[in-house]
Amino acid sequence: MKLLYISGPFSHPDNLHGVKKNILLASEAALQGWKQGFSVICPHKNTAGFQHTDIPHETWLKGDLEMLRHCDAICMLYGHWSSKGAMEELEFAESMNMPVLYYKQGKIITADGNVVRGDAL
Q1: Which pTM value belongs to this model?
Q2: Residue 92 backbone class (left: φ over 0; alpha: ψ -120 to 50; beta: rest)
Q3: Which of 4, 83, 91, 100 is the most buried (most CB within 10 A)?
Q4: Count of domains forming the chain
Q5: Could you tell me the pLDDT band of residue 63, with boundaries at 50, 70 and 90?
Q6: Do the beta carbons of residue 45 and residue 6 sit within 8 Å?
Q7: Cross-strand partners of 111
């Protein structure tokens, strides 16, 4: 079973509803990843509710990159380009020649739009 990392915005200017929407989108993608045969790491679910701590952003990113290091593929969520952390995760994944997938229209897909299964990656 291939291990899939979900990457996308966590923070949001609307610190209440925006963060919740970002976590919900990541949760939907994670569930779909499981349905498509991946095991899934979803940092959004791992740290939900922690956004009001005094832990520096760099600490979260360092931990996320450590988890990502062990994955077989990364799945980018809508809006990832607006997130500094998601873009750093994407660059890290690309530096490791990791397949980059996307969550669109309720499916985990390749860049050319093909639905991909964890056992076929």
Answers
A1: 0.88
A2: alpha
A3: 4
A4: 1
A5: confident
A6: no
A7: none
